[in-house]
Specification:
- The longest helix is centred in the middle third of the chain and has 31 residues, at 101-131.
- The protein has one domain.
- Helix content is 51%, strand content 20%.
- Strand 1 (2-8) and strand 2 (11-19) form a beta hairpin.
- The protein is α+β, with helices and mostly antiparallel strands and 219 residues long.
- Helix 5 (101-131) packs antiparallel against helix 6, helix 5 (101-131) packs parallel to helix 7 and helix 6 (151-177) packs antiparallel against helix 7 (181-196).
- The protein has helices at residues 32-36, 40-43, 54-60, 71-92, 101-131, 151-177, 181-196; strands at residues 2-8, 11-19, 22-27, 46-51, 140-146, 205-211, 217-218.
- The protein is elongated, with a radius of gyration of 20 Å.
Length: 219
């Protein structure tokens, strides 16, 4: 069945789904693995929360505006970041870190943990912000499969994700073989951006959904 997807105002974590006259909230932070591998949003059912109060829906909605094409600018920004890293490499030699595989790996692990903690903290902030308007735990729940908006959206998202995944792996490699403060900073930044683009799997527009069979239950 058809579904209109809208964003929640100033909240990247949630989506509003309008399906056959009913409104649901989709939590893009419902699964840790889906945040890391956002393709799972299309491959497995996702929990949704039905909102029956139209006043709540209006408070949640983002103002209607045309979709901006951020994908190309994101890749351009990443390219600029790599260029800046190259320019700063001579300066980074003054901040060189101890060069042993074990120490470099431990530092990389701490950088990765920092990026994840920052990401989780941001998602928890979005959750608290939404709960000031509506408590999802009090709503009726269901599960549904949701598809990419179009073939174009599917391939664009896959390309962007693989690009930033490759960039993240490259910086992780550099953090081990040629570590310095600048490289570690960019490693954390690229990894954080890789995580933050996961909601792009379900973008604003019209798509198709299929409910998982079973009676709706209240949490």
């Amino acid at each position: 069945m058809n579904c209109k997807v809208q964003g929640v105002f100033k909240n990247l974590r949630y989506r509003i789904l309008a399906i056959d006259g009913e409104v649901y909230i989709l939590d893009m932070g419902c699964s840790f693995w889906k945040m890391i591998f956002p393709f799972f949003f299309w491959m497995s059912p996702n929990p949704v929360f039905r909102v029956e109060d139209p006043n709540i829906v209006e408070k949640l909605k983002s103002p209607e505006r045309s979709q901006t094409k951020t994908g190309h600018s994101s890749i351009l920004g990443a390219g600029i970041g790599v260029f800046i890293t190259t320019l700063l490499k001579p300066l980074a030699n003054y901040f060189a870190l101890p060069d042993t595989p074990l120490i470099n790996t431990m530092i990389l692990v701490m950088v990765v943990i920092f990026a994840f903690v920052l990401f989780v903290s941001l998602y928890n902030m979005f959750k608290k912000k939404l709960h000031r308007i509506v408590n999802l735990e009090e709503l009726v729940t269901d599960k549904l499969w949701i598809r990419a908006n179009s073939i174009k959206h599917f391939f664009q998202f896959v390309i962007y994700y693989l690009f930033f995944l490759g960039l993240t792996l490259l910086f992780c490699y550099l953090s081990i073989v040629d570590p310095d403060v600048v490289t570690q900073i960019f490693t954390a930044g690229v990894l954080f951006f890789l995580l933050i683009i996961s909601p792009g799997a379900v973008t604003m527009g019209t798509t198709t959904v299929k409910f998982k069979r079973g009676k709706k239950t209240a949490v």
